[in-house]
Amino acid sequence: MFKETFQSEFHFFSVSFYLTIFIALLTIKKTFFIGDFFSLLQRTMKVRSSVKKIDPDDQIVKRRGRIYVINKKKPRNKQRQG
User: Fold this and answer.
1) Which residues, 6+ apart, have CB-to-CB distance to 74 below 8 Å?
2) Whose CA is closest to 71, among 59, 53, 56, 54?
3) What is the sign, positive or negative, of the torsion defined by CA atoms of 23, 28, 30, 32?
4) In this structure, are residues 58 and 46 in contact, taking their beta carbons and an 8 Å threshold?
5) Roughly what angle, to the nearest 10 degrees, separates helices 2-28 and 34-41?
6) Which of 28, 35, 47, 67 could make an S-S bridge to 81, C-beta 3.0–4.6 Å?
7) Residue 31 shares a structural domain with residue 58
8) CB 81 within 8 A of CB 65
């Protein structure tokens, strides 16, 4: 019983923690968008010296002079050359 109570309290703490960060960033930075907040929660992309397709659905894209590998079905396959 203690284990269940602890897990539910921890989950509540983590949600309130993220909400506190979100509100703090809104007050500090006026140009902060909700998409930026959700991008903080996502896994970061892999930065590699050479990027390759891991999956057949991967797309190689060049943006702002950098080469990216993106995959909309599996976001964990994101890569950036750098």
Assistant:
1) 55, 57
2) 59
3) negative
4) no
5) 140
6) 67
7) no
8) no
Burial class (CB in 10 A: 0-12, 13-18, 19+), 79: buried
36 and 10 within one domain: yes
Q: Find the domain containing 55 and state its range.
A: 45-82
34-71 residue pLDDT tens: 566 556 555 678 899 999 999 999 999 999 999 999 99
Who's near 52: CB < 8 A, 6+ residues apart? 69
Cβ atoms within 10 Å, residue 58: 19
Q: What is the CA radius of gyration of the chain?
A: 18
3 and 33 belong to one structural domain: yes
